[in-house]
Amino acid sequence: xxxxxxxxxxxxxxxxxxxxxxxxxxxxxxxxxxxxxxxxxxxxxxxxxxxxxxxxxxxxxxxxxxxxxxxxxxxxxxxxxxxxxxxxxxxxxxxxxxxxxxxxxxxxxxxxxxxxxxxxxxxxxxxxxxxxxxxxxxxxxxxxxxxxxxxxxxxxxxxxxxxxxxxxxxxxxxxxxxxxxxxxxxxxxxxxxxxxxxxxxxxxxxxxxxxxxxxxxxxxxxxxxxxxxxxxxxxxxxxxxxxxxxxxxxxxxxxxxxxxxxxxxxxxxxxxxxxxxxxxxxxxxxxxxxxxxxxxxxxxxxxxxxxxxxxxxxxxxxxxxxxxxxxxxxxxxxxxxxxxxxxxxxxxxxxxxxxxxxxxxxxxxxxxxxxxxxxxxxxxxxxxxxxxxxxxxxxxxxxxxxxxxxxxxxxxxxxxxxxxxxxxxxxxxxxxxxxxxxxxxxxxxxxxxxxxxxxxxxxxxxxxxxxxxxxxxxxxxxxxxxxxxxxxxxxxxxxxxxxxxxxxxxxxxxxxxxxxxxxxxxxxxxxxxxxxxxxxxxxxxxxxxxxxxxxxxxxxxxxxxxxxxxxxxxxxxxxxxxxxxxxxxxxxxxxxxxxxxxxxxxxxxxxxxxxxxxxxxxxxxxxxxxxx
Length: 628
Hints:
The chain is an alpha/beta fold. The protein contains 16 helices and 22 strands. The chain has helices at 3-8, 12-18, 71-74, 80-97, 126-141, 170-188, 209-219, 236-242, 254-264, 270-290, 299-313, 360-366, 386-397, 426-438, 473-481, 525-530; strands spanning 40-42, 101-103, 146-152, 165-167, 192-195, 199-200, 203-204, 225-228, 315-319, 332-335, 371-374, 401-407, 442-447, 462-467, 495-496, 514-516, 535-537, 548-555, 566-574, 580-588, 601-610, 615-622. Strands 9-14-13-12-10-11 form a 6-stranded mixed β-sheet, with helices on both faces. The radius of gyration is 25 Å and the shape is globular. The two termini are 43 Å apart. The model has no long low-confidence stretch (mean pLDDT 96).
């Protein structure tokens, strides 16, 4: 069917009706034209399709689905192929559940480590964000399921997100906050883009013609549907005129009537409404054509995919005296309630009901590992419990190595609010300090979706960050601890020593009405490197159990000719004694620049697996835009 002909055959009432949802998750149908409703469901690290009456905050139970590692976790793999595989698996689960559009990926920039929703986002770097988001979109859409690239744009805090005005200069908007989404739109053509709640420089994103039409459609060539974030519609008529197509969820016909009235009064052109209706009909027809009935995905296979993603995303941050991997026949003291009650995903609209859930405690028992356990702290209470601390110290003194599981409890980070600080609970910090005082072989395993301050860092020998590892995170973590898997994850965000070191800290979440982006383009490592500011762990950092040698780096030419590329070649060799993967990162800097620029910017990366003694030459191709 031709969408334009279908729209021409519609009444104004029918066209307007397509522009808002039927209920919380579905679009309206037009029976006489055989246009069905389609279902949109939350993502991005699992399919959240709710049973019974729908809501937006996860109160009502959703159908079981594979809980993959959150985006902040899987991004640490720096692996486009892995992101595609996650997307493909999610597409399969959407097929089974009759979901037409998965609401993800989230491609907002991590301006501050305090943003409560950072666990859903890729990175502080726009190039890395765009490349990984594009791969994820390709994976989902390869299964005939649409995606919704979100939240467009400069939605970088949760406080007052419905009304906050992001005050962003043009360079920061273009170079930092739009670039990742531009890459994803141009490379992967998402079926939909989701408009954000906030305003930008005074105008709501869902009413912003410069964003939705001038940039997204005319500059980037986007031809799909623009949908509101749920409840982000402010002025429906202004939205349609700006290029907003679909309001979600339903407004029970109220805003449809406003569209009709505006057309009849000449305030909104029929042509503009027709364009939105045509894009919505295209989406509905595409979804209808790709619907597969009685599809069943393999839950066991997807669980193993989730496990592999988690293991390839774990970041080894410290490994003094090669304390890891844990040697055979060591007696282990496992300390921390996270071992029995895992923190494996974020809270809010992305909350997944996992098909199964592992814990480190049970997995150690299943593997018949010799270990002793102590709770160490109470997850429901941040205060120090000396009885639990003393018990943990007693158990630790009996072990050859101590593994302390610590991090951010669920109430510390969630959609809907921002973190007030970067600290761990006081009980976690005190536990680590006390254990380190009595034992020389301590490994800390951190769970959480964002950077944390670590006042005890010099006292522990080993440190890994699992981020939020999904339903198979426990197996993945043990695979890394025992050397079954060689850690290869690298940080996609900088870890400041203190919150005060972050360039946005003085202006972040301090005003209920305005978010002032005074740091401009100096976000994350662009600031720390340019300002020569020490960090706890830098962007792109991560250790391995093997060693890689870089050699024979060559640049094909020093100047661009019209429409040519510059090739950079480098050979990587595994000179260690274990197989492993390395993430090769290529940065550029402008030596002679009139405008101010960061000292270094990521413009290429590749993940490669090498056996001991094996080497491979990598070739990076740069177009002129890479240096812009």
